[in-house]
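Lab notes, practical 5.
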Amino acid sequence: MADKNKKSNKFNMPVLTVAPMMDWTDRHCRYFHRQMSRHVLLYTEMVTAPALVRGGALHLLDHSAEEHPVALQLGGSDPRELAQAARLGVQAGYAEINLNCGCPSDRVQSGTFGAVLMRQPGRVADCVMAMRDVVDVDVTVKCRIGVDDQDPRAVLPEFLARIVAAGCERVIIHARKAWLQGLSPKENRDIPPLDYPLVQEMKQLFPNLHISINGGIADLDTARQMLDQGMDGVMIGRAAYHQPWDILAGADRLYGASPRLQTRADVVASMRPYIARHLAQGGRLHQITRHMLGLFAGQPGARHWRRVLSQEAVRDGAGPEVMDRALDAVDAAQAA
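Output from the prediction step:
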């Protein structure tokens, strides 16, 4: 049985995290993000427990040591299956196991996991306890403030109380409801109104629970404000993906550390050995560079950078010279 009295280091109590995002935060994206920050905690895309346990899809756990600190997000609702999946995740080297209780897609609803679990706090507690019994890393939960016609002020405290009693010490709360009927997953990221004060109230109700706030946070200044207002951590999603330099290059200052790299060109240079290894193993350039399109967001030449990578990296045999041409286009635009 895992030691439930283990002490967490500062990386187990993260100040800033990048949200798990399906089709986006794969291992190539995480490696790219890690070039800009040593300390930000990164998350995998959601991996379903049935895929690992019943399907044997262990390749979904592939990652490189350079990505750490990195957490595995699991989807599922069967305590025994999640415990098996969590054990596989720890064996693969992940620093945290996170249970998805926030995704609103049809697929997760039909599988009885994701945001639909907000209606079943007892089951979530059982899942948390089952995973904690077999792993010696933090087991955390990412949730919404409620779903559909639930009253968040009534259901969220109960939900948190149940998972805390099961041993969860850290939770990420997306400060929106999820509407499981009537809104698409994309609409669920924008349309339900944000309720930051409710999440801040939860910190007052559960002072010993590490609470990170998520939803609509698009810059480091807002993240700092959230921390100043009492949040233990902040999770940023789409902004970290679409403007990675703006979010991640200065993120280590939140940990009292200096930035890892000085320029966007430094990031490109740091990716070259990784790209060379990937190509040598039969991979394709665009599998990595698709995550790099936003590197120059907001800068002169950003459109040229995106265009060259988008058009040329998908071609057969495309190699690092594509990035050279994209950088040349940026330099030309900035010199104009």
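Observations recorded by the TA: Residues 264-280 form the longest helix (17 residues). Residues 1-12 have pLDDT under 50 and may be disordered.
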